[in-house]
Design brief:
Helix content is about 25%, strand content about 15%. By secondary structure, it is of the alpha+beta class. The strands form 2 sheets. Strands 1-4 form a two-stranded antiparallel ribbon. The protein binds iron/sulfur cluster. Iron/sulfur cluster binds near residues 38, 49 and 50.
Length: about 90
Amino acid sequence: MAYKITEDCVGCGSCEMVCPNKAISEGDKIYKIDPARCTECVGSDSKSQCVEICPANAPVPDPDHKETREQLLAKWKKLHPGETPKV
Ligand code: SF4
């Protein structure tokens, strides 16, 4: 399931720098996550990096983008051709 950023975002931008998939970008008021690039960090890290670093607990799972671990890993492989998943 991709994550999304709620209105609790304080706009610090910390998440953009730690996302291994370059899924996060600055929106009009708050940062946003591209669900086509978010893998819950599956393939890169054991924990969602945006969640770990956010001081406002703004990233949350997006129920509109439910995916299995296999689907998330397939997405990661498309984003990182030729690389081996780390987790
Ligand atoms: Fe990026 Fe991971 Fe956050 Fe998804 S959960 S937006 S892949 S840092």
